[in-house]
Amino acid sequence: MTDSFSTSLPAPDGSAPDGTATVPEPAFLDGNAAAGPLRELFTVDLTAAVGTCASCGDAGPLGGVRLFTQAPGLVGRCPGCEDVLFTLVRSERDTYLSMKGFTTLRFPTAG
Amino acid sequence: MALISRGFSGRPRSDEPDLPPGQYLTSDFPVLSAGPTPRVPLDTWAFTIVTEAGERHSWDWKAFRQLPAEDLTVDLHCVTRWSKLGTSWRGVSLDTLLEDVETAAEYAHVRSYGGYTTNLPLEDLLDGQAWIAFEYDGEDLAPEHGGPARLLVPHLYLWKSAKWVQGLILTPEDEPGFWETAGYHIYGDPWREQRYAGD
Amino acid sequence: MRWQPAEVSAVHAETQSARTLTLRVEGWAGHLPGQHVDVRLTAADGYTATRSYSISSAPAEGELEITVDEVRGGEVSPYLVRDAAPGDAVEVRGPLGGWFVWSPDSIRPLQLVAGGSGIAPLMSMLRARAAAGSTAPARLLYSVRRPGAAIFAAELERLAAPGSGLEVTYAYTRAVPPGWPRPAGRVDARLLAEAAWPADRSPDVYVCGPTGFVETAADLLVAAGHSATDVRTERFGPTGSTS
């Protein structure tokens, strides 16, 4: 992971776009990238938890969801059906977390 | 108290008197997106207004483009704190689209291709304040900026100007859209810095 | 998890555009190979910027290394690559992420696929593998633009010494070294078939790089029979919008 405010994607080898006229897809990252903001809220790591999508029933680790970060908040989408799994919005005063796209989240039981 | 990193300045920031509070000026046009970019072929595109009585007013691309359009130059204010001044658009005024729509509804719920939604008072769409824009800077509106057509309501934060707009549902109650449900302000006036739900 | 003060204790140029920074953090208990840290920089006027960086070092107490490739026009990476000097202060939050991690206890074959500076978390895995004396056979497919752009090239050569159980294959996308057997080109199905563990060996697979690279490589791996759930990915690109 590294920072970028580029509005277009780098070429697949990591180089800068070379002027080819392709429409840039909005960049998404893996759910891993939400680990920090989520660890501000939870005492356990959420990215290893397995979530089940309320829309299509696919299950997978939060670390593997599609995370849209170039937005007013973080938006996690199901890699299977692209429906919204969670949103995270932070202001200086409050943090808003919605998990309504999950039917369940499975964690290893502690102890 | 945060630790200061010596020599770090960050992106250029200025207190421009002409900008809403907490905004900085940008010259590029950042692409923000909460999801994948929908590709909407013009032959299946339609813009539809549904009233509280269930009455539908619909325009396909051809009918939409036959409506009178206007050129406009407006300032954009994104809640992620960038502002872009003097942007040029061409679009159809919502006054034109709502002209023959009979409604007593006070709110509009905006729906987009791809599933995005937002909400605003109907009166904010009237009186030359809002357009369905289909050109930016003299060119067809690119998909990443909301093409074929997007809502443009420049007096509110830009998340209200729904990209890939598909239609309006006119409702008696204000129903929060995507970001309004996720923690952002129900109205979103940049000059009153209405960013988050509690602002 | 709280932000902790960190001191830049050393900097090391890796390539023309990439640099490794050693961060000393009091009470840092180490990390799992593959994890990242969030780094926060604060300007004199209170303005802050936060970015995520993979940890490239082997787990160690009290310090970690991040390897940063400069993004032109970026806000944080130019500071870390050009300006930050030993003694400077940043803040870190971490270690983070429990999914894109590899355990040196794993006995399955290890398949790593890196694009550009996506080598960073995979390097942590290879360093941890060597430090732990792991016998898990490992293969790294590393895509870079041209020979000089490879980060950690000399160390990778040492780590892949005969008997190490590690094989490193480079894919050069723009320019190849003299006498290289393949023309310049991107990772494709044929190269994967030659250089990566076949799916029937059930390797642990980690892919890291820019979004487009990861997308392509992960698709190719799944098409080659690897289970999508075994292919762990770490895309990098824009982050930090909620910070």
TrEMBL record, chain B:
InterPro entries assigned to the protein according to its UniProt record, in alphabetical order: OxRdtase_Mopterin-bd_dom, OxRdtase_Mopterin-bd_sf
Region (Disordered): 1-22
Pfam families to which the protein is assigned, alphabetical: Oxidored_molyb (PF00174)
Domain Oxidoreductase molybdopterin-binding: start-end pairs: 35-179
Signal peptide range in chain numbering: none
PANTHER family, A to Z: OXIDOREDUCTASE MOLYBDOPTERIN-BINDING DOMAIN-CONTAINING PROTEIN, PROTEIN-METHIONINE-SULFOXIDE REDUCTASE
Name by which UniProt lists this protein: Molybdopterin-dependent oxidoreductase
Species for this entry: Motilibacter deserti
Lineage, broadest ranks: Bacteria, Bacillati, Actinomycetota, Actinomycetes, Motilibacterales
